[in-house]
């Protein structure tokens, strides 16, 4: 410590400043800081977006296939059996019903998984 009188000790904070600093320190301790860069966050968001895109595209393709398969089977059976529009209409009805049931089950399954993840966080 220098002997001359030029060096001063800093003044302690006032009680209001101390309380504000104490609250700020507590917020910093409790905040979840990953320490990752903005680019890493951007890549993570892109990855999540691609996962959602693939998931929902797959659901859409499966929805269409669930409708088209019974419809195509009905069309083929109508051609073989000679019952013109009857089995196509039955295939469309079965396919649409099956597709809606499948979508509802898929949505409920996805909702329960996301609710489970939220409980864990």
Give me a quick take on this structure.
With 121 residues, the protein is an all-alpha fold. The protein is 79% helix and 0% strand. The chain has a domain at 55-116.
List the helices and strands and how they pair.
Blueprint: H1 15-30, H2 38-81, H3 86-120
Helix pairs in contact: 2-3
Structure in words:
By secondary structure, this protein is mainly α. The protein has a domain at 55-116. Helices cover 79% and strands 0% of the residues. The chain contains three helices and no strands. It has helices at 15-30, 38-81, 86-120. The chain starts with 14 loop residues before the first helix and ends with a helix. The mean pLDDT is 84.
Record field, number of beta strands: 0
The CA-CA distance between the termini, in Å, is: 50 Å
Chain-averaged pLDDT:
84
Low-confidence segments, given as residue ranges, are none
What structural class do you assign from the helix and strand content? mainly alpha
């Amino acid at each position: 410590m220098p002997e001359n009188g030029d060096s001063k000790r800093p003044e302690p904070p006032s009680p209001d400043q101390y309380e504000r600093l104490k609250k700020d320190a507590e917020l910093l301790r409790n905040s979840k800081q990953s320490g990752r860069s903005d680019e890493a966050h951007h890549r993570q968001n892109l990855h999540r977006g691609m996962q959602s895109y693939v998931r929902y595209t797959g659901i859409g393709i499966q929805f269409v296939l669930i409708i088209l398969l019974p419809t195509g089977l009905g069309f083929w059976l109508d051609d073989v059996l000679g019952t013109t529009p009857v089995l196509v209409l039955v295939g469309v009805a079965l396919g649409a019903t099956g597709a809606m049931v499948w979508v509802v089950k898929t949505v409920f399954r996805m909702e329960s998984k996301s609710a489970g993840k939220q409980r864990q966080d």
